Amino acid sequence: MFGLSALGAVVMPLLILLKEDDLLFAAGMSLRVALTGVVLGWMLYFVPGAVKLNTPAVARLVPRLRRRLVEVTALVWVVAVAMATLLSLNTKLPTALVLLGTGGWIAAFGLGQSGSKVGTWVQLAFTGAFVFHRHIPPALFEGVQHGTGFAVALLLMLAFAAYALQAMFLNGGERHYAAREAQILQIERMSPTGQFRERRQNRFDASLYRWILKRDSATRDSGRLLLHLLGARNHWVNRAVVLGAILALAAGALLVLHAYGSAQTQQLVKDIGWMFPLPLLLGAMFDTEKRNVRLKDTAGEQALVRLAPRLPAGAPAFNRKVAVMLLRTALLEWAMLAGAVLCAGAMTGASAASLFTQACLCCLTLPLVGATLRDHAHRSGLLGWRLLLGFALSLAVSAGVGMLLNRGMGLPTAVGAALAGIAIAAVLVALGFRRAQTAPYAFPAGRLA
Amino acid sequence: MTTAIIQSAGLGKHFGSATILDGLDWQIAPGQVVGLLGRNGAGKSTLLECLLGLREPDAGVVRIYGEDVGQLSDATRARIGYVPQKSDLFEWMTPRQMLGYFKAFYPRWNNAKVDNLLLRWGFDKLMQDKPISKLSGGEQQRLSIIRALAHDPELLVLDEPVSALDPVGRREFLRELIDGVIERGTTVVFSTHILSDLERVALDLAFLKDGKIALQGRLDDLLEGARRVVGPASLLDGKRLAGELRRQRAQDGTVSIVTHGGAGLALLGQEAGVRVEPLSLEDLFIEVTQ
Q1: Which residues from A are below 8 Å from B92, CB to CB?
Q2: B60 and B137: one domain?
Q3: Does any CB of chain A come closer than 8 Å to the CB of residue B137?
Q4: Residue A77 covered by a domain
Q5: What residues of chain B lie within 8 A of the CB of A444, using their CB?
Q6: Are A268 and A338 members of one domain?
């Protein structure tokens, strides 16, 4: 973060100087980039670390530590706000708004980073104000920039910053213990692995899972039972409910648009609306990573399941069972995502040709199901950049094959690419199963080196 | 001769350059109750995991009920109960759900025993419907033990099963272990650091040191045969005692020798300046594992 900022702080003014001969502007821009880097680093690294360090016991028992954390945090906040304000001088930005905005937003961000919902809501409010600033009465903007209005706004901002500081670094006691879970959850969310950890179930999830588990236990099907290693919220029924809810919301939105939207808007939705649900397909990538993280997190449970009867004995048979379970889940989830995308596309009133193209695009993400078949004796955890790179490569190959088939056989590019996607998925699955046959027993205690 | 339930030969396990198990040979006979002792990091958990096939050894073979541990049949697995050191118990489930889940795997499940243990060990209706993640460490460990006992295993492997239990919980567990498990002739292998518990339960002890079983025998025999001989170096240096386990020279020049089952110590004890002392289990643990 700091390295990138330093690089940006050097490169940016040089680029500006190449274009126009304004040394002051270039220096100002360099300082802005450096300041942004420092503030981002502080918010993304220092604040979570400091909040993690300030446990209820540490806050109460370690002399001066909490005070020092508060002091450093406050100092960085003051310097960042002051610098941002100074750098806004001689620009079109209203200095008072920069002062109030950066002060409030940084405090809200820090508060949000410590797991406080207030911080998240205030950040949302700032985002809303930024997006819809044209709808805010100009008198309000004017009012907070001068005289009493500014003084009141400044006092409010300082009070909020003081509250944020106090809430970020609680001083032990019941409140701190109660907030600790949210703090740890938020800190965990900052890591790539943490994003895919099992979250606490809400009442709906819990009752849904109760039903699923009861049903699976009653069937005594070892494959279905094995699936529960993935946790409560990663069952396909859960996914189906979530997608159903998304589709219901989309249907509601489309109905509103149909009733109140202009003819031009409705035609636009009909023409290109089918493209909007396509990002849903990227869910297949997150699903793969989620399964990887879950299989890493449930190592202890896996040992107990491995010792239970009904699961096949011997590495090849057991690994094949695991592979079938994972592949079935991945395929089902992919099919549900693709189905939801097509359903949403159909709801927009897209033409048959558009829906066909949409179906072809869905097939391009099919190779992701192959990524779920791994050697679960050795490796576990996130695939990370390997998954991204592999997916990008698969897309590129599919597109290339699609174009070649188009030139050679006159097949539409989308169809050719879709066929290539299906072929890549088939190859990956075949390789994955072959690996499962020869790999050591999956889920050993610890993991093989 | 009775066939051993667990047989390991030449068991080896390395973590990087560290040797955890070094060609370990071990046998557990039916009905044996063995307490596995060793210092922290000696490899007790690794040994138990290798014995159950949960960890792949780098060398050697393990057989349970005559079957290769990597190919255990359903019937054999149904005979094994295991309590891991860390109670990873599907923490998103409730105790009731978790027990129902495992019940679906096993051909035999003693519902009456489960209900009885849940009741006796303080799992009221409210607690049975609480997510396992919300239970305390001791409660999770008790649940883990209930899960392992629920299918009436014939071989029970417990890895520090009482480490998170309070004295009341420990006593209740030991009572169940003695009355409900050992009395039925179940073979039990368990590791623990709480030596007083071992003295109440285990009939046999095995000390793990340097990747091998350094000493094994019946508890009474071990305690009866273990002696510490302390005397002047001039007398003990150069004299090799029978059953010698460890020899140490103190700063004052005296030599301390720990022996087990050595004969002729009574005679040596009559020499001037020589003391022959019996050892407690704790002394024996320290002397053997240090």
Answers
A1: 198, 201, 209, 231-233
A2: yes
A3: no
A4: yes
A5: 54-56
A6: yes
